[in-house]
Amino acid sequence: MANDFLDVEKSIAEDAQDTLSGKPRPASAEPMLSGASAKKQRTLWGDAMRRLRRNKLAVIAIIWLLIIIAVAITADLWVPQTFGSPTAIDTAKSAGQSLLAPSLQHPFGTDLQGRDILSRVIYGSRVSLAVGILATSISTCIGLIMGALAAYYGGIWDVIIMRLADIFLAFPYILFVIAVLAVAGPGFQNVFIAIGILGWPSIARVFRSAILSVKENDYVDAARAMGASDARIIIRHIFPNSVATIIVYATMSIGGAILTESALSFLGMGVQPPTPSWGVMIADGKSYLVNAPWMMLAPGAAILTTVLAFTMLGDGLRDALDVKLKDA
Amino acid sequence: MGKYILKRILQFIPVFIGVTIILFVVKNVVPGDPVKLITGEGPSLTPEAELQIRVANNLVESDVVKDENGNVMYNSDGTEMRIARLDENGDPVPTPMVKQYFIYLGDLLHGDLGTSYQRKMPVTQIFAEKYPYTLRLAAVGICIEIVVGIGAGIISAIKRYSFWDVLVTLCTSILVAMPAFWLGMLLQLLFGVMLKQWTGGAFSLPISGAGGVVSTYPTWMHYILPGITLASVSTAYAARIMRSQLLDVMNADYIRTAIAKGLTRRQVIVHHALKNALIPVVTYIGIDFGSMLSGAILTETVFNWPGIGYEVYNAITRRDWPIVMGGVALIVVVVMVINLIVDISYAFLDPRIRFGAPKEEK
Fold it and tell me: How many CB pairs under 8 A join A and B?
């Protein structure tokens, strides 16, 4: 464990040494991300994959995320049968099942209504993953368009869009999301839309600076000289050269969106009961901290490990793709 | 320098106006009649009383009432007596949205944040009551951030790859990924419930600095757990920035020169490296102080802390718009002023920014 954090830097240093000494490296890794044929040719994505696979923390993160995703997708097949339904409240049964401490039958205990905590945590992962991915997709799309407009056209577009981003960033973020939810009403759909719509300014900034650094390259001038349209230049030439930055930033944003969702649900503005959500479960546990601490322990640990996994994966991707994230 | 400050202040004006416009739009698209929000679900009002409320809140056009000598008449509470302007059908004329916005903006610039719908108090008075709690908590949080964040960052950079470095890196990663409200509850669970016999119940639930809890323990003890919770994420970031900055600076040429001169490692670090490495960290902590002053809804909710974050959050759920609009405007101004101070001091410390060099070296 002690060296895991340092592997990244060491592996980059090793790469540099290998590169300098001209030593050929084993080209064993399949270029999975590129989708190219598995020929022994070296691509940017193949190199990145190889570096990512050497980063133990990133590999652990990927495995953990795959487990969570697999469990979330297959939950209907085995979770309710084994641990009980996450939502059903059986009044006849719940009296005896209420606030049970963790046991073999209920590994994480039960809540006030006698529902199994593990079952609810598993179903809660669906909400968190969905909100994290959908919200990040929305904010990335808006951020990309805004960032592209600002950086590529510059001038008045740049001023307007960046000022707008300043206005959005001047708001206390969580208060802003809550205010939007007060207008739109709480609920799953509104939560990811609100987080997604309000998350664009930082992505726009990152993408803007990424484009600005790519835009000055000769091949962009060459494309323009050949008569390529603005849209073609952005999509075919600029976008592929800043896609690494976007992937890294989006991966890290998913963790942030999951944290925001849990905070909103904790405050009662997010996903509404009886749909299990980690934030709602922690809020439920707040009143039973003394008698039933397990009610808040499991969902909190779920948030922590999931967000941590996305951060680690983002860190790993950043090092593997050699992206320098500017202060966003 | 003066030019730079002026430029920064001028940049704030469009941002502030944008924020007020967004607040105003949010308030006006929310479903619900303001009069209902003001009077609550009580018995229905007479049309006259309802009209009077609309006049008082500038929802309909009104005129000042004058006596026969042309002097303005005043209500018993010292405000101008106003009467609704009626059109030819005898219906009140609604105030145009744009005019309502300018009335709101004008009041705001005069420091008048309006009167709370439900609490029937001036919003400024509510915030004057709540702000000290947020301020004191932010002060505690920032102290923790400075001492622990900078300290951990320095140790982790100096003893790179050691056990302590790994520990700091691990802790910062976990703290950043942890929901702050969950950390607050864990601390309560640990110190308030499980270690109760050792702490003597000093942290027992509910922990509140409001003075609502009868406690034999000094008041400052109530600040410890909320302070740690509030500072957790930013302390982790401060430690990370400190570490990477110090490692960066240690590779600089002037450090090699200092070592070549024969200075001890300690002298090099204290006199040469730290000064430069601290600048971005201090900037980060300064900006973070601004966001702490804007009240932490989550920390304040977990600890029932009577600060402004909690107040504004409650106001949103109750749709008490004057508190929301006043609170957010206040928060935005505080954050902007702190950011301005940070930027100016940064420019003061680092001439490269003052002279317009791009701020890219972070």
Answer: 129
